Amino acid sequence: MNTTPLLELGMALCGRAPTHRAEILVCWYLWALILDDRIDDGPWAENGALERFICAVQAATESEGTVPPGETSQFEDPMLAVLVDDLWPQIKYWGGDGWRHRCVGHLIQHLRAQAAQVRLRETDSAFTLVEYLPLRRDSFGALFFFDLIDAAETLDPYEHEADIDGWNTLREHAANIIAWTNDIHSLAKDVACGERYNLVSILADTAGADWPTAIESAHQMVNTAVADFTAIAAQQVNHRAGAATDPNRLRQVVRAAGDWHRSVSRYHLNAADTTPRNNRQVDLKLTPPTLKSRQFEIDPYPLYELLRTTLPIAYDEPTDVWLVSRHVDVKAALTHPGASNNNYTWQIGPLLGHTIVTMDGCEHAQHRALLSPSFRSKALAALEASIISVTSDLLMRMQGRSQVDLIADFTAALPVRVMAHALGLPAETPEAVEQLKRWCAIGFAYMGNYRQDPALLNGGLSNRDSFYDFIQPHINARRAEPTDDLISQLLAARIDDQPLSEAFVRSYCAILMTAGSETSHGALANLIVNLLDEPGVKEAVMADPDLMDSALAETLRRNPPLQLVLREAREALQLPSGTIPAGATLACLIGSANRDPDQFSDPDAFNMSRIEQATSHFAFGAGRHFCLGSMLARMEITIGARMLLHAFPNLRWAPGFKPTERGFLNRCPEQLEVVL
To answer: How many domains does the chain have?
Structure first.
């Protein structure tokens, strides 16, 4: 069996548990790790989502009933479904009522501590040490796992009433040691990601201390907890080796966790207690931020600057991806003959199979040549007519309204309807458009699921099946009676004198629908923000509509909706700033390259007068995989924006509204509230 150090830690916790119980214990361990990543790394837990999750967990674990055999719960969230249908039923009767009550209490306590952490993070609140310590102990979840280990090994250290207080105190010390050790070794990662929820950070903030001093203080706290644990354990004299009341079982768990933290590569700060303080070097700038950090969704640009100036070629261990941030390196990587699209085999291959996105070489050239005519010359002229028609209809629907959200009423609907029309799919009613928008958004989120959120993985597969069910009758109809739409063209196409398979036709429809909608919507939204926010830009393009092309080019440079693309190194890639090893996945950070001061003067400023520089951005990629639909996207966005300003020349932000870019794979505002 292939393992990782993290999985090996989970296996080490199983101790003397029988195999079948050890397997269940490891499954709980993996469930908790996935949930922890889900909470820490992204926005899923915010806006009350985690509180609702906790209520569902509490109801399921405190309920006396169980899901009848052969049936499953109806939870859409796979984390809840697994807990209710599988994990909890398997352990519910491992122990008696006392154990079950304690186990559920510690699980809910663990989740509520994480929810409190999320609330503090949302409000950017500071922590005092007194507030932090019990919250950290509970949020790490060690007490819950001690309960699971007890039951897995059929032990009950709480059997005698007189032992309860002693064991509670002993376990709290053990949980503190594990949690604080984690904080010490994850300090570099947390600081790089802007995470303030860390013992060392709090010690540094509250005492005004430098990092070496704060680390030393944290180590002293761990040593004190170890001494307290040892003193209390010495009082537990009535035990035999391997029994429930043997403190050595807790020692084994604490030691396994500590060994893992010291050895695993993602925790780069490994300052030993024996190192003299004045010789201890702590350089937190040498730890790169991770793509899993929510900071990339909130504001990635400070992270880009850190990478360009300090770590231009950096390995992001949590995602197993190399980060490439400078313009010169991104260009070299995207155009390098040794850079492959094979990464999409695991990125979207499980969803759509083998498609043009995953292809390289001659195969890619053949399929690209097949699709290119649909986005050039006469075909583009037909698409232009569709853009004008759809835009006119959307603008007409806004007439007579004083205030609208341009995301809901314009930017998201326009590319969806244009691409649907090109494919020959119905998108006339608001309901049909909303359904297509949902399909596109979920499909795009699946492709950018760097955090491997299980809800997005499950949702992507069911979303694909739903979309395929929708388009199949249209494919059947075009097969029987072809027209001039893209589905008919795909059915008529031949490669090596062979027609495309049904699977290819369906996947192409999904790719064209999704890729042709999401990034165009984001680029149009970002262009509108620049038109209304940047001084004089709106007036300039209204006076000279041809300037809209320059406004879009500068928007794509400074505010690209797609912030990165992945590639795989078929061979070692020698880039100007360093080497990517053979077989590695690399993230070409478009958003960083497009703001590289070595390529663009005053890169954070919006400047429509950039000429040759404006064409050297990477919003549409570069090299053999340059965006096939770039001409359509430019035309769609510029026509839409021109017609919007022509119809509503007094367009301005609604009172009190300020647009905020969010997201990473498709970075744009979630709302654009305007007064017409």
So the answer is: 3
Q: Are 46 and 118 in contact (CB under 8 A)?
A: yes
- Spatial contact of 628 and 372, defined as CB atoms under 8 Å apart: yes
Residue 522 has pLDDT above 50, yes or no: yes
Q: What is the pLDDT of residues 661-671, one digit of tens each?
A: 988 778 999 99
Judge if 171 and 120 occupy the same domain. Answer: no
How many Cβ atoms from other residues are within 10 Å of residue 616's Cβ?
A: 15
**pLDDT level of residue 413 (50, 70, 90 thresholds):** very high
| Separation CA 201–CA 193 (nearest Å) | 13
User: How do residues 166-204 score in pLDDT, each as one tens digit?
Assistant: 888 999 999 999 999 989 888 877 776 667 788 999 999
Q: Is the domain of 422 the same as that of 532?
A: yes
Q: Is the dihedral of CA 71, 74, 80, 81 positive or negative?
A: positive
Q: 564: part of which helix (H) or strand (E)?
A: strand 564-569
- 316 with 457, same domain: the answer is yes
- Does 289 map to a domain? no
247-263 helix and 164-185 helix, angle to the nearest 10 degrees: 10
Q: DSSP H helical segments within 186-268, as ranges?
A: 187-192, 199-207, 211-235, 247-263
pLDDT of residue 513: 86
Task: Give CA torsion, residues 171, 173, 179, 182, to 10 deg.
Answer: -120
Q: What is the CATH number of the domain that holds 123?
A: 1.10.600.10
Instruction: Give a yes or no: residue 269 inside a domain.
Output: yes
Say if strands 403-405 and 661-662 run parallel, antiparallel, or are unpaired.
unpaired
Q: State how far the Cα of 561 lies from the Cα of 541, in Å rounded to an integer.
A: 21
* Pairwise CA distance, residues 104 & 95, whole Å: 12
Sheet holding 652-653, edge to edge: 403-405, 673-675, 652-653
In this prediction, residue 239 carries a pLDDT of 55
Q: Would residue 283 count as lying in a domain?
A: no
Q: CA 664, 524, 321 angle in degrees (round to 5)?
A: 20
Strand-pair partners of 53: none
Torsion angle of C-alpha atoms 621, 623, 629, 631, degrees rounded to 10:
90
pTM: 0.81
Tell me if residue 402 falls in helix, strand or coil.
Answer: coil
Pairing of strands 585-589, 564-569: antiparallel
Does 148 lie in the same domain as 179? Answer: no
DSSP state of 68: P
Are residues 370 and 236 part of one domain?
no
Question: For residue 90, what pLDDT band results from cuts at 50, 70 and 90?
Answer: very high
Among 156, 182, 207, residue at a domain's last position: 156
Which is nearest to 134 in space by CA: 199, 217, 190?
A: 199
Could you tell me the residue range of the domain that residue 190 belongs to? 163-278
Phi, psi values for residue 498, rounded to 5°: -120, 140
Ramachandran angles phi, psi of 313, nearest 5°: -120, 105
Do 519 and 661 sit in the same domain of this protein? yes
Check whether residue 269 and residue 307 sit in a common domain: no
Question: Is 662 domain-assigned?
Answer: yes
State which of 246, 278, 310 marks the end of a domain: 278
β strands within 506-655, DSSP E: 564-569, 573-575, 578-580, 585-589, 652-653
What are the angstrom distances between the C-alpha of 224 and each of 180, 230, 231?
12, 10, 11
Burial of 302 (0-12, 13-18, 19+ CB in 10 A): exposed
Residues 119 and 237 both lie in one domain? no
